[in-house]
Amino acid sequence: MALSTANSFSPSLSSKHASKQPELYTWFRSPNAIALKSPPLAPASIELKRNGGFVLGQYKVNCRIYASSAAPMMDQTVSKAPTIVEVDLGQRSYPIYIGSGLLDHPDLLQKHVQGKKVLVVTNNTVAPLYLDKVTDALTRGNPNISVENVILPDGENYKNMDTLMKVFDKAIESRLDRRCTFVALGGGVIGDMCGYAAASYLRGVNFIQIPTTVMAQVDSSVGGKTGINHRLGKNLIGAFYQPQCVLVDTDTLNTLPDRELASGLAEVIKYGLIRDAEFFEWQEQNMHKLMARDPRAFAYAIKRSCENKAEVVSLDEKESGLRATLNLGHTFGHAIETGFGYGQWLHGEAVAAGMVMAVDMSYRLGWIDDSIVKRVHNILQQAKLPTAPPDTMTVEMFKSIMAVDKKVADGLLRLILLKGPLGNCVFTGDYDRKALDDTLHAFCKS
Amino acid sequence: MALSTANSFSPSLSSKHASKQPELYTWFRSPNAIALKSPPLAPASIELKRNGGFVLGQYKVNCRIYASSAAPMMDQTVSKAPTIVEVDLGQRSYPIYIGSGLLDHPDLLQKHVQGKKVLVVTNNTVAPLYLDKVTDALTRGNPNISVENVILPDGENYKNMDTLMKVFDKAIESRLDRRCTFVALGGGVIGDMCGYAAASYLRGVNFIQIPTTVMAQVDSSVGGKTGINHRLGKNLIGAFYQPQCVLVDTDTLNTLPDRELASGLAEVIKYGLIRDAEFFEWQEQNMHKLMARDPRAFAYAIKRSCENKAEVVSLDEKESGLRATLNLGHTFGHAIETGFGYGQWLHGEAVAAGMVMAVDMSYRLGWIDDSIVKRVHNILQQAKLPTAPPDTMTVEMFKSIMAVDKKVADGLLRLILLKGPLGNCVFTGDYDRKALDDTLHAFCKS
Predict the structure, then answer these.
(1) Domain extents for chain A?
(2) Average model confidence (pLDDT) for chain B?
(3) Does A179 contact B115 at a Cβ distance shorter than 8 Å?
(4) Do A177 and B411 lie within an 8 Å CB cutoff?
(5) Architecture of domain B82-256 in this structure
(6) Distance in angstroms (rounded) separating the CA atoms of residues A188 and A348
(7) Burial A391-412 (b: 16+ CB within 10 A, else e)
(8) Looking at A326-330, A392-396, B16-20, which range is the least confident one?
């Protein structure tokens, strides 16, 4: 099959953190370099700043990213003051607040509420745990605000149009107008549905993300991808729509089931693999702390994940190239979720198996050496995540579902594959079809 | 009730065409002025050009509009070459092509198709008339293009989520990817639904509008408002999403029923009332030609309507103020459509009755003199449009439905009302509630 190089995208990503001990005013001048600048008076807070232009495919992207960073965990103390990671999208820029106990600081939330009416969208698992707390944070000292809520059933299998309509019903019955604010309180499913509802209600109202799972805190709440599933494929209906802010209260992880926690770690591992080798190495050394829910380790993992996500989204909001690399393992993973049945596996579980398949294919293509394959297996096993798809998945199921993936362009399936040393990947349709076939057959019984 | 002047918006619109016989290089220097410039070699084509800034509320809008214009009908000849009205929205700018027989020029359509797959969204009334013609225009001399279609039931009562899902089903089953193009072939309902489907499918694909009704050609296909109805209100779910182009083949009006034709004239009349007194006067003199389907009169009415719409949309795409003025009569009208039952009255019929109510209220407020009231009645009667709501509408129905209108802000209903000489309006929540009550009681039996 003739393949066009026009479908190949190789951003030549290098590991962005060149030093474990950032030095004051150290500047890196390569196209992907980031200037690390540590204000002398705040040694635990380091400003990541990227200036200048970056050529992405045919487009020149002007970018400017401000994100607080930190030295690795061992040098850090946990603070109640929020860490702020800024997603730089011009007029649509917004902060991600990360910290312990943030829901006890109403000011942080209230300054992003527009209008007098708020609709909290949550589910029947999260509502008993945090709805009262969030309602209090929205209204304390602010009696003019009225808060409505809609409690949806929990789970990926409810991320559909029928459930979405319940949000619209509630908003209209509550007579919410264009100056209202929607608040997503929950994991990735709630964030995606509430965001899409906010994008569509009255052709767009403000919204705020309060993610309560690792998955949502490190990935899905950041970057404005919203949407719902179709019975034939994941996230096929939706919108790019940015929130006013993302508020990550790390205390909410205290109530998260182990399986949900591990699911989120799949996305944390992904950032290391696609663009941040040093972060991957940190994870290899600290996965036992994450699995033991060490709050300092989690604060660091969330922050560094959000920095990676914010940087990529700022460079390529609408996924014309670079942003697609955040979907390592997701094309295989979405096929598992759709084929095996929404909600059977958690999103991160499917992504973990999908990453193993993408890594296997990269190795078959001769693009990575076998040490990376082993390290990926090892870290996923440490995180108690699957390293193969469910037995019921067949080669034909993968092929037919992957054919409707959003990354198909003019009939050609483009994939994110690793290429080169750890921390480097490509988004491309320019690969040998046999490698894909071999990978599918290696992981499926039929 | 205390009213805030912050909710008042008065753009001080003046009649934009200062001369019936445009002179070469005549410039008007007021903030609302438009420079009329006629190229010497093309006397039937005049370029409307607006340069510089325009202060809209708190925002400074930089605008640049190019639109071809023409002398009034009596001086004009009908040409096969399309008139082009440009909607200037920066990177999202697009042309409106207007002319007779444009569907016989495949190049015009094909140059706006992106990717190899097209989905034509139409209804069971329009499909037998124009689907083959449009499919031919899309594929003639271009064998790489594959065209799918989805034929929806006709009518406002099908403008809902269930019908929208049929578009997604067809798109996914046809394996359309992000490089596909959706084509809306039909009236306002089809355009709104197809546009919203295009905005949401894979988080956004390209689309083209081919409006086949007066309503769609003069109003709904231009400006990127897309959406569906909710049982509790019109257009409450949707997106601002611009097409790649709008192609108005005026020959499609040959098959339009009289009632549909009259419905579209309500929007034509609206432009005259809110911002173009000279156009209103032209309509008073030429309504008999429009009712007799004089093609030259229609070509002019469509073009001048599109110029008005394009100019307003270019200045205020997301309806932060000025654009709301295009909704004269629509808040009352939407209440009629929702309360009386979607599809019972055509949109323009409801808007016509709504305009009479808005004009009545403006007169009660002392903002216009009675000559305007009479002229509005007269022109609507000439166009065989209603001048009062259906008998079954009650004051309470109006009030409860209007409470969920998109123009409500923090509980305050803002309306478009006429104020001053013909061609001037305001968008405001700063009016005496008694006038609204009096108008509702004057037009409802209970």
Answers:
(1) 80-294, 321-443
(2) 85
(3) no
(4) yes
(5) 3-Layer(aba) Sandwich (3.40)
(6) 11
(7) eebebebbeebbebbbbbbbeb
(8) B16-20
